Amino acid sequence: MFNYTCLNPIANVGLDLLTDDYKKVDDLADAQAVLVRSAAMHDLELPEGLEAVARAGAGVNNIPLDKCAEKGIVVFNTPGANANGVKELVFAGMLLAARDVVGGINWCVSEAGNADIAKVAEKQKKNFAGTELSGKKLGVIGLGAIGIKVANAARHFGMEVYGYDPFISVNAAWSLSRDVKHINDLETIYKECDYITVHVPLMDSTKKMISAEAIAMMKPTTVVLNFARDLLVDEEAIVKALAEGKLRKYVSDFPNPTTVGQPGCIVSPHLGASTEESEDNCAVMAVKEIRDYMENGNINNSVNYPRCDMGVCQTTGRVAVLHKNAKGAIGSFTAILADAGVNIDNMSNKSKGDFAYTMMDVDATVSADVAAKLGALPEVFKVRVIK
Q: For 132, what's the count of Cα atoms within 13 Å in the CB-facing half-sphere?
């Protein structure tokens, strides 16, 4: 039996995938697994029995990743599960920036009750005129699950698309339309593109990557779109550029005092993944990740531990060790098992930065005593006897 808790509401279509082997508890202290969306976990006391955290979404800045890793807690996210919902909102943002649809709608509301509104509208509509997306250049920074969908869809709008991602994966490259121009430097995108949309994770290296210097390279007609994280953009510099007529629009899905209500800023209340389909997809993916880890020890889509998948155990036992990426660790594990008369039939060891994960299929059940010896090693964070 596995105990789990939800720190945010999680769609039932996902929770329904949990079997009778899973029991929902209200107290985090009693949980082995956590499902979360936006709840802040940095100040929470993480119990020793906690094994996994699954974020129903892509961003994980609300979760203390290193703290979890050092306690042997695997953190999962759900990349791509909400990609289509975000992609569609990006295009809504581009259209709202290209044509003053909101201004026109507000004008219509202000004329409610005017019997001659249709006639007056013909004179007023020129005040809300704009431009088309077709034929414009779109720069997509970051070609992950969302960026690829945006880039590919933009081609169907008749846009000329430039894509930038020095770390593009093989699978992503295969999914990218051959009509998208793969650009090797950001300056080309800053200087050439009419629309620039950013889809990279927030890290120290990407914080405020859309800087004052980057903005200075852009055309005064450029529209910048941010549906990834607000801190990727130097928003003070954006507001200044808009006020000076050096940018056309800034579209953001992250409301804050810097941008809300500022001229040229179109801000929505973090709606990117707020669709029924996205919430369902994220919930299903998060629950499947939790189940595969709790039941089989497999790690897929973790942000603090490496991917490691050995399928369903076909031997007598399976043990997993979460540990430091240190020399000699494997030898210590195998020596303890050998001393206990346990033979390793299959093994996988993967590392990610300072952290590593070793999974071993063995010909005998690993006893509590043997597990304790493994757990006592200085490089080990946690030992899980899965079978």
A: 6
The CA angle 184-92-122, to the nearest 5 degrees, is 125
Cβ atoms of 134 and 159 closer than 8 Å:
yes
What whole-number percentage of the chain has pLDDT above 70?
Answer: 100
Facing residues of 344 across strands? 362
- Checking if the pLDDT of 253 tops 90, the result is yes
Nearest-5° angle of CA 382, CA 383, CA 386? 135
Tell me the residue ranges of DSSP E strands in 220-376.
223-226, 249-252, 265-267, 317-324, 344-352, 355-362
Residue reference for tokens 């890793």: 69
pLDDT at 173 exceeding the cut of 90: no
Q: In the 3-class helix/strand/coil scheme, how is 232-262 assigned residue by residue?
A: HECHHHHHHHHHCCCCCEEEECCCCCCCCCC
Residue 33, SS3?
Answer: strand
| Residue 136: both structure tokens together | 């414009």
pLDDT at 169: 83
Contact 357, 326 (CB under 8 A): no
Burial class (CB in 10 A: 0-12, 13-18, 19+), 270: middle
pLDDT of the residue at 170: 82
Q: pLDDT tens for residues 347-379?
A: 999 999 999 999 999 999 999 999 999 999 999
pTM of the model: 0.82
**pLDDT, mean of residues 325-354:** 96
Q: List the beta bridge partners of residue 384.
A: 320
Q: Are 51 and 33 in contact (CB under 8 A)?
A: yes
Would you state the pLDDT for residue 25?
A: 97
- Please answer whether residues 129 and 188 qualify as being in contact, where contact means their C-beta atoms are separated by less than 8 angstroms: no
Question: Using 50, 70 and 90 to split pLDDT, how confident is the model at 161?
Answer: very high
For residues 160 and 146, give the distance between their C-alpha atoms in angstroms, rounded to a whole number: 18
Of 337, 213, 359, 284, the C-alpha closest to 17 is 284
Calculate mean pLDDT across residues 272-301.
96
Of the CA atoms within 13 Å of residue 246, those in its CB half-sphere come to 16
Task: Count CA atoms within 13 Å of residue 277 on its CB side.
Answer: 9
Which residue type sits at 41?
M
